[in-house]
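Limitations

Structures in this collection are predictions, not experimental determinations, and the ligand pose is part of the prediction. Treat each record accordingly. The example that follows, with methionine sulfoxide as the small molecule, is included so readers can see exactly what is and is not provided: the inputs are given verbatim, and the output is the predicted complex.
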Amino acid sequence: MYDFRPDPALEPAERYRQLHDAAAALTEGECDSVANMANVAALIWEYVPALNWAGFYRVGAARDGSAELVLGPFVGRPACIRIPIGRGVCGAAAAEGKTQLVEDVHAFPGHIACDAASRSELVVPVLRGGEVIAVIDLDSPDPARFTADDAAGIETLSGLLADRI
Ligand code: SME
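Predicted complex:
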């Protein structure tokens, strides 16, 4: 049994340090990307407070063979399965290869509402060899929930996962 339960009083920096250690330990030596994404989504859910969705979209193939985002392992309500690159917050992160920190999702052009409760969102691309292979998506019911510390924490997590998903 794994029992990764952070102390609720932890400062964000320490919370993210523990999340990184837990993710590194849990994915070490495991080559199945679905298993690793599933466990990391569960860890994000445990370590990052005030979320209503946490998980992955992978870059996959559309019916016409072009690239699009395809839903991966997550914790939260059932979500949209396919997102065109460039559309919504996740699509923007994939198109630009850059973190998107959105304080108010209703003000983001093209935001895709998978859960009406979401008010703010953080999406971090996962790059391997300079190519975006997936994005990590965090949604919160709280407005302006995410800070630069959260972005940095999830970016470090993304770097750690590049060869493990
Ligand atoms: N809101 C995202 C879609 C994914 S869900 O939040 C899980 C977006 O605009 O890309």
